[in-house]
Amino acid sequence: MSESVADTVELDAEGLRSRTREFLASNDPATTDRGEFLRARFDAGLAWVHYPEGLGGLGAPRALQPVVDAELEAAGAPDNEPSRIGIGLGMAAPTILAFGTEEQKQGFLRPLWTGEEVWCQLFSEPGAGSDLASVGTRAERKGDGWRVTGQKVWTSSAHNARWAILLARTDPDAPKHKGMSYFVCDMTDPGVEVRPLRQITGEAEFNEVFLSDAWIPDSNRLGEVGEGWRVAQTTLMNERVAIGGRPMPREGGMSGVVADTWRKRPEGADAATYDRLMALWVEAEALRLAGKRLGQQLAAGSPGPEGSAMKLGFARLSQELSGLELELLGQEGLRYDDWSLRRPETVNFTGRTAGYRYLRAKGNSIEGGTSEVLRNIIAERVLGLPAEARADKDVPWKDLPR
Q1: Is there a domain that residue 69 lies in?
Q2: Are 93 and 113 within 8 A, CB to CB?
Q3: Which residue segment(s) compose the domain that 131 sits in?
Q4: Are residues 212 and 270 located together in one domain of the fold?
Q5: Which residues have a catalytic role annotated?
Q6: Are 278 and 390 members of one domain?
Q7: In terms of domains, do 172 and 280 share one?
Q8: Residue 285 burial (CB < 10 Å; 0-12/13-18/19+)?
């Protein structure tokens, strides 16, 4: 059997299952230090199997990752706390893989995946949230690096982060989509200041970040100078999948929380409320199945604009379901557990109390791209509608150009 054929056989489901069991035999999760175990898993190519060898993967089909995960979970192996390092896993890593140099990939991906280094995202600004192409943060070339000055806002995990993915303007005279570059910023640099932003929930999971002549070596640039918008699109597509396209079991997420509340309080419910719940339950199930299909598309290639539809649906359903939960709970739903300022390491959309879930869901239609922007993306890039016709409210939909 040739080496290429042997590799193909080895990287099928059974081959990966066997390889995972061999790894576990040499790295018993019951007796191996957690950090040591995670680093060994990365080095064995069992972190994200579709990544190249030497970068946490084996070059195997992405669809086979659940085979590895199931074996490790059955053995009681520790995970890398994906809820704590989601920005690194879901946004920074695929961008570094697509645009990073070999040195950048080797230096950043391993500690990112093991959770030794938390990442955040320095994109949005007070004057450039939905219109990301209008970022005003400036990066000026100074010798072998860049001096960066500006303000970023709504930055999740900045208070815990070691690194950040940063979009900055390097050519103020170029058209706004052309004059940006993409960097990896060291959050420990003296020119970086992080301040908490208290939210409606009482927490400060978001932050504002001030960059005052912060230093970034040119070796921490991803992509070419002026190519920042193209690089950022890879990040944004993966971000929307990460937020709205997570694999869920039936009645996972808010639909399960509200259904459970209904079952515990049948005496306070009427037929009209039941109809509302069932309609939302069906929509949640349809979105879950669409997410499974999106996962299959990801296994075959890269995320596309379909991820925007998943994120849009997730935001709307979370808000409607959390509102219905408060109605089902009546006066009890008006209680709130704790308004004290906290700066959490993780965010759980279904955690804490009903009041928290209702308030936290308001952010779902803002973070990861506002629902208004996502509707434009879906209209233009999925449905193929021309922007000028779509924006003209006087044109009947049936008369729009095909």
Answers
A1: yes
A2: yes
A3: 89-94+97-225
A4: no
A5: 239
A6: yes
A7: no
A8: middle
